[in-house]
Design goal:
Number of helices: 3
Largest sheet: 12 strands, antiparallel
CATH class: Mainly Beta
CATH topology: outer membrane lipoprotein receptor (LolB), chain A
Number of domains: 1
Distance between the termini: 82 Å
Strand content: 35-45%
Shape: globular
Structural class: alpha+beta
Oligomer: single chain
Length: 244
C-alpha cells in the first residue's frame, strides 16, 4: 500500500513537471515570426521604467565635396518619479578637407521638476521650473513612445542566434522617430535592422538608413540607437555648475 502511494506521488510530480515545462514552451516567442517579434519588442520598450540610450546620427553630404555632419546623444530616462538627461554633441565637417568646422554641445537635465539647460555657444546654464515646459519634456522623453509597429514593413529575419534575433525591413514613414527628432521629415522612408534580445525581448539596437531625396538624387543618412540598463538606469545627477 505504501509502495502504491509513493508511486502515485512520483507520478503526480512527474505530470506536474510535464505541465510546467509545457507551459514554459508555450510562452516562448517564435523567432520565425518577424511581425510578432517586432511588435512585442516595441511594446516592451514602451513599458520600461528606465533605460540608457546612445544615439548617433551621421549626416551624409549631398555631394562628394559638400559639408556633412554628425550628432550624438546620451540619454537617461526614468519614468517615475520622472527624471531625464540628454547630452548632445553636434559637429559639421568640411567636404574638402574632412576637418571639423563647428562643434556644439547641448546638455539637458530634468530632475525634481526643474529643467537645467546648457549650450556651448554661450556657455551658460538656464534653469526653468515652468510646469508646461516640464510636461512637454516628459511627454517626449521616452523616445520609444512614438514607435509603432505599423511604421515598419517588408519584415524578415536577417539573423537568428542563441541570444538575439535581428529583424530587418523597410519603413513606411519616419513617424516613429518623432519623440527623438521632432523636425525629421516624417515622409522619409528607408531600411532598418532591429536587434532584439532573446533573454528579455527588448530592443538592444536599431540601425536606420533613411533615404533622403536631394536635388542631385538621393543620400543615405545613418541613425543608430543603442539601449542598455533596462529598468536599471543609474540615477541622474545634475552638475553642480548648473545649480549656481
Amino acid at each position: 500500500m505504501r509502495c502504491f502511494s509513493i508511486k502515485r506521488t512520483l507520478l503526480f510530480i512527474l505530470l506536474t513537471l510535464i505541465l510546467v515545462l509545457s507551459g514554459c514552451q508555450s510562452i516562448k516567442k517564435d523567432s520565425s515570426d518577424p511581425e510578432a517579434l517586432l511588435k512585442d519588442a516595441i511594446d516592451n520598450m514602451k513599458k520600461l521604467e528606465s533605460y540608457e540610450a546612445s544615439v548617433s546620427v551621421k549626416i551624409a553630404p549631398e555631394e562628394p565635396e559638400a559639408d556633412g555632419g554628425s550628432m550624438s546623444a546620451d540619454i537617461v530616462y526614468h519614468k517615475a518619479p520622472f527624471s531625464y538627461s540628454n547630452l548632445q554633441k553636434l559637429s559639421m565637417t568640411s567636404g574638402d578637407s574632412n576637418e571639423t568646422l563647428d562643434k556644439i554641445e547641448l546638455k539637458n537635465y530634468v530632475v525634481d521638476g526643474v529643467a537645467y539647460m546648457y549650450q556651448s555657444i554661450t556657455a551658460l546654464w538656464v534653469n526653468e521650473t515652468d510646469k508646461d515646459l516640464i510636461n512637454q519634456v516628459e511627454e517626449l522623453a521616452n523616445i520609444f513612445d512614438s514607435f509603432k509597429a505599423e511604421d515598419f514593413d517588408d519584415l524578415r529575419i536577417k539573423e537568428d542566434s542563441k541570444d538575439k534575433t535581428v529583424v530587418a525591413g523597410t519603413t513606411k514613414s519616419s513617424n516613429f522617430l518623432y519623440n527623438l527628432m521632432q523636425n525629421f521629415d516624417e515622409k522619409v522612408t528607408g531600411a532598418f535592422e532591429m536587434v532584439i534580445s532573446k533573454d528579455n525581448g527588448y530592443m538592444e539596437k536599431l540601425i536606420y538608413t533613411p533615404n533622403i531625396e536631394t536635388e542631385g538624387g538621393h543620400v543615405n543618412h545613418e541613425i543608430i540607437i543603442e539601449v542598455k540598463s533596462f529598468n536599471k538606469a543609474p540615477a541622474i545627477t545634475v552638475p553642480a555648475e548648473a545649480k549656481q
